[in-house]
Amino acid sequence: MKKGLTRIICLTLALVMLSFALVACGSNQQAAAPSQPGGGSAGGGSAGGGSAPAGDGRVWTIDAAYAAGEPVTRSWTAGLNELAKRSDGRIEVNHYYAGSLLTFPEIPRGMVGGVAQWAYLPTINYPDVLPLNTRILQLPFMGLRDALDAAEIWMQLYDEFPEMGEEMATFNMMAIAASPLYAYQLHLADKSEVRLHSDLTGRNLVPFKPEFIPMLSRYGAAGTYIPPGQMYESMERAVVDGYINTWAFANWFGLHEFLNQHVLFGEYGMFHEFFIYVIAKDFYDSMPPDLQKLVLDIHRYENYAEFGGERGYEFFWRETESFIDWQIDFARNKDNLFVQLTPAEVQIWKDALDMENLHKQVITEINDLRGDEAATKIYNRAREILTQKYGS
Question: Cβ(286)–Cβ(299) under 8 Å?
Answer without folding.
Answer: no
